[in-house]
C-alpha cells in the first residue's frame, strides 16, 4: 500500500510539473524604443534605386558639432550602427564613379567642410571598428550654416532632376550636400 501511495504522490508531482511547464508564460514586455530610431532615405530614378539607412539622433538640448560630434574625427554619420548606403546601379557620387553595391557611410565633420567616406566593411556598430584600409571613396563637401535649426539628424534626397539628385545631410544648423548623377547604361563605364 505504501508503494502505491508513493507512486500516486510521484505521479501527481510529475503531472503538476508538466502542467506548469505547458502553461502560457508571461509575455515579455515590448523592447524599449531606441532613443535614436532607424530612418531611411531613398530615391528612385529609372532602374537605379539608392537607399540610406541610418540611426536618427536628436539634439535634445546638447551641443552637437565640435562637442558631441567632434570636428576632425571619423563619425558614423548618425547613431547606433554605422550608416549604410546602397545603390542598385553605378552612379557618380560627387563626380566619382561608384559601383553598385552597399557601403558604410562615415564622415569627418569640419566647421567649413566635411569628408564623406564610403567603406566596404558592413555591419559595424558606430565607427569604433572603422578601418580606413577598407575605404572605397573619400570626397570633400562644403558645410553650410542654415537659418533653420533641425532637432533631428536627417539624411534625405533633394533636387531630383532627369539625371541627378543631392544627398543632403543636416542637423541643427549644419547642412552638407553631395551631388549624385544617375548613369544610364550607355554612359556607365566598367
What can you see in these coordinates?
The protein is mainly beta and 190 residues long. It has one helix at residues 2-22; strands spanning 38-45, 48-55, 79-87, 91-93, 96-98, 101-108, 113-119, 135-158, 164-182. Strands 1-2-3-6-7-8-9-4-5 form a nine-stranded antiparallel beta sheet, with no helix packed on it. A hairpin with a 5-residue loop joins strand 8 (135-158) and strand 9 (164-182). This is DUF2911 domain-containing protein. Residues 1-26 form the signal peptide. Pfam families: DUF2911 (PF11138). InterPro entries: DUF2911 (IPR021314).
Question: What's the short version?
Answer:
Keywords: Signal. The chain has 190 residues and is mainly beta.
Q: Poorly predicted ranges (pLDDT <50, ≥5 residues)?
A: 23-31
Range of helix content: 10-25%
Give the topology string: H per helix, E per strand: HEEEEEEEEE
Provide the gyration radius in Å: 26 Å
Average predicted confidence as pLDDT: 86
Strand content: over 45%
Tell me the span between the first and last alpha carbons: 89 Å
- Please provide the count of β strands: 9
The major sheet is characterized as: 9 strands, antiparallel
Instruction: State the secondary-structure class.
Output: mainly beta
Please count the helical segments.
1
Strand order of the largest sheet: 1-2-3-6-7-8-9-4-5
Number of domains: 1
User: What best-fitting shape do the alpha-carbon axes yield?
Assistant: elongated
Amino acid at each position: 500500500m505504501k508503494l502505491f501511495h508513493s507512486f500516486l504522490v510521484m505521479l501527481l508531482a510529475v503531472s503538476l510539473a508538466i502542467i506548469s511547464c505547458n502553461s502560457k508564460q508571461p509575455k515579455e514586455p515590448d523592447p524599449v524604443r531606441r532613443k535614436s530610431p532607424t530612418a531611411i532615405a531613398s530615391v528612385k530614378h529609372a532602374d537605379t534605386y539608392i537607399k540610406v539607412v541610418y540611426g536618427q539622433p536628436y539634439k535634445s538640448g546638447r551641443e552637437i558639432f565640435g562637442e558631441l560630434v567632434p570636428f576632425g574625427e571619423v563619425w558614423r554619420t548618425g547613431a547606433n550602427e554605422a550608416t549604410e548606403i546602397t545603390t542598385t546601379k553605378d552612379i557618380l557620387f560627387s563626380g566619382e564613379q561608384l559601383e553598385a553595391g552597399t557601403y558604410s557611410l562615415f564622415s569627418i565633420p569640419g566647421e567649413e567642410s566635411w569628408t564623406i567616406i564610403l567603406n566596404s566593411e558592413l555591419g559595424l556598430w558606430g565607427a569604433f571598428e572603422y578601418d580606413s584600409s577598407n575605404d572605397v571613396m573619400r570626397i570633400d563637401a562644403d558645410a553650410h550654416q542654415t537659418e533653420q535649426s533641425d532637432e533631428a539628424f536627417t539624411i534625405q534626397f533633394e533636387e531630383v532632376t532627369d539625371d541627378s539628385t543631392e544627398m543632403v545631410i543636416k542637423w541643427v544648423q549644419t547642412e552638407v550636400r553631395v551631388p549624385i548623377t544617375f548613369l544610364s547604361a550607355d554612359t556607365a563605364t566598367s
